[in-house]
Design brief:
alpha/beta; elongated
């Protein structure tokens, strides 16, 4: 990154954050470590491929199972614990308009000329005194179309248009830092271009801040979609978001774990947000990174039972671009915060480090590893079917040592392939390998059950939201996970080829709002 092309606000963040900044993908120490690790694994693979496969399988199962179990535990805590914070109508009525503070709203828009008027309309629907709103519309200097669209809107006096100078990196968090520098509100919130927050959301957030300890820095409102019926992709996406914001994040808050924030509807105490340095302008999922940094600074985050409605991505390639950016940002966040693992452990504490690692690093790994598990599973099922279709027995196929019974396996490229035994058990087998095979088989069954349990968590999220029309799609969610894995690999590759590139998500693509939700 050419420092001559970086503005002063970004320089200030880099100076403050030090190593906890995504301005470089890998530090020299990290690069050396991963090169050394890769070389060691290749040597291991060359000379003892069997032990390599065994070791890699154990490690992958441990990470995968840990991430799945952690997420299921968070969801269970949300279902049976306190979860999100609810604010009643009576509590809101007790707050008079005269005691409400100035509230800053950040609206970063880029290439949103088609819906610029919509966001202004949605902000006008907020139940909050207009003379106490400080709305910052953040525009990029080269986005002339959106600038013209905003200029055509009859903006009330509470709006201020800020054109961000054309320097690198051109990202949403950099634009938000410009808004933060000029924010007048005691509290602030960020909304995306297509957002439609519930009208009383600002008042609810303020009520929580007013009655919470001074170290509560962030209140995360829930996100959900108002076009879930549009097509199969919006249905899957809505199930995922319902699970994340209705179950997982409230569960993490209950467990006092770091929260990877959503990219919108984050309400902050402005002073504490400034104390933490604002957003990392180089991180393409600045929300996830900020949630971790707030936790390391000793601040708290909670989840508010108020929904901001958005438009779910309805086109596959647009969705892939969005998801690949999210995964790239999760990987950036993981690499940034583990540059000094012991220091991160000290700042997060054992439980916080455990939660961060499983919910950010291991979760990203799970997305990348899924295709390998699916490929191995489909290969095994194919070989198993071929064996039984050609006269071999199921018991003979899955329990070693194998008795061939005339079946030589599937012939491909002059070689014969058989389904590998799941159990090596019997007097002629090595006791160590026999017990290890049973343990690995048991772990594999637990992994299968964990995935089924996660499908059950999706079902619970749909029931909680009363999205009964989405329940038939829940059993098909593993296919959606495969799509996520495809996007994850795109983001992983781009992490090294174009780490700061912000792949723009196009909004307003649905022909019409389906009106699923209020």
């Amino acid at each position: 990154m050419n420092k001559n092309k970086i503005d002063n606000l970004t320089r200030e963040f880099m100076a403050r954050a030090g190593d906890i900044c995504a301005c470089i993908t890998l530090s020299r120490r990290q690069a050396f470590f991963y090169i050394f690790l890769t070389a060691g694994l290749l040597i291991f693979l060359k000379y003892r491929w069997d032990y390599f496969v065994l070791t890699a399988t154990i490690i992958m199962i441990f990470w995968y199972f840990g991430a799945v179990l952690f997420r299921c535990s968070a969801a269970a805590m949300s279902l049976f614990g306190r979860g999100e914070i609810k604010v009643t109508r009576e509590q809101l009525a007790a707050v008079g308009d005269d005691e409400l503070p100035v509230y800053t709203i950040f609206l970063p828009l880029y290439k949103e000329a088609n819906i610029a008027g919509k966001i202004v309309k949605n902000m006008s629907a907020l139940d909050y005194p207009k003379d106490k709103l400080d709305i910052k519309i953040l525009l990029e200097n080269d986005d002339l179309a959106t600038q013209e669209a905003v200029a055509r809107c009859a903006l009330p006096s509470c709006y201020e248009v800020i054109v961000v100078p054309g320097m690198m990196p051109k990202t949403k968090p950099r634009a938000c830092n410009y808004g933060l520098a000029q924010a007048r509100g005691e509290f602030c919130v960020i909304y995306d271009a297509e957002d439609r927050p519930e009208p009383d959301q600002l008042k609810k957030a303020y009520h929580i801040f007013r009655n919470a300890p001074a170290n509560l820095a962030c209140v995360q409102a829930k996100l959900n979609y108002d076009n879930s019926r549009y097509n199969w992709l919006t249905r899957f996406f809505t199930i995922e978001y319902s699970t994340t914001f209705d179950l997982l994040l409230p569960g993490l808050s209950t467990m006092n774990m770091p929260l990877p924030l959503g990219g919108t509807s984050n309400h902050f105490r402005t002073a504490l947000l400034r104390n933490s340095g604002g957003w990392d302008p180089f991180n393409v999922t600045e929300d996830c990174d900020l949630g971790i940094r707030l936790y390391t600074d000793g601040y708290k985050t909670c989840v508010l039972d108020s929904t901001t409605w958005e438009e779910a991505n309805s086109r596959l390639w647009n969705w892939v671009r969005q998801r690949s950016r999210w995964v790239k940002g999760f990987l950036q966040t993981h690499l940034v915060h583990v540059r000094h693992p012991l220091d991160t452990w000290r700042r997060l504490g054992p439980c916080g480090y455990f939660g961060f690692y499983l919910n950010v690093g291991a979760a990203s790994f799970m997305m990348l590893a899924n295709p390998f598990f699916w490929a191995a599973g489909l290969l095994y099922l194919g070989l198993l079917w071929h064996a039984t279709a050609h006269g071999d027995t199921l018991v003979n196929t899955i329990i070693g040592p194998q008795n061939f019974n005339g079946y030589s396996g599937l012939e491909l490229f002059g070689m014969h392939f058989r389904a590998w035994p799941l159990f090596y058990w019997g007097p002629t087998e090595s006791p160590a390998w026999a017990w290890l095979s049973v343990i690995l088989f048991g772990i594999s069954m637990v992994l299968l059950l964990a995935n089924l349990l996660f499908v059950g968590i999706h079902l619970a999220a749909c029931l909680k939201r009363r999205y009964y029309h989405l329940i038939p799609m829940v059993p098909l969610m593993p296919f959606y996970w495969l799509l996520i894995s495809f996007a994850a690999w795109k983001g992983f590759i781009q992490l090294f080829t174009n780490p700061f590139y912000w792949e723009k998500t196009n909004h307003g693509l649905c022909a019409e709002n389906q009106g699923d939700n209020p």
